[in-house]
Predict the structure.
Amino acid sequence: MAKKKGRRPTVEGELSITSMMDMMTIILVFLLKSYSTEDISVKASDDLEIPLSSAKKPPRLAVNLVVTRSQVLVDSVPVLSLERVPDEETGEEIVRVPEDEKKGQMVSKLYDRLLEKAEYAEELSQRAGTEDSEFKGQILLQCDRRLPFNVIREVMYTAGQAKFGEFKFVVIQGGEG
């Protein structure tokens, strides 16, 4: 009769290498999934003071729309100069879009430039043909925190009319969360 092989006697306190490898694999996968390198560098202007935020969502690359206290830029190219006029009620200087540049709430030059960007992005998206490259109408919006709301509203309205409906505000990570 053949002799049956028995189990080796185990010594108390011994770790199984298989369990340890499983644990290390899980930790490695977790660390790789949580690691992010999606910082977007934004060129700051002397005329732009970015607001603080406690947001944790990572930025994505998109068309970059910058509204400083003196001008509006699309992908670092100046599109429109803003004007400073005295406020009728307080006498303080306020920033606004020049009246001759607007049609209602839409800013004409900005609309033309953004529509051109949107159509170009749609064309590239169709050529690529993948879901990842699909045009989603995302725009990175950098606004000086001292700007009046009506300037930001007019810029956002114009961007929305030019097929950019998803706004990502650029802020400096800071505030309490």
Q: What stands out?
A: The chain has a mean pLDDT of 80.
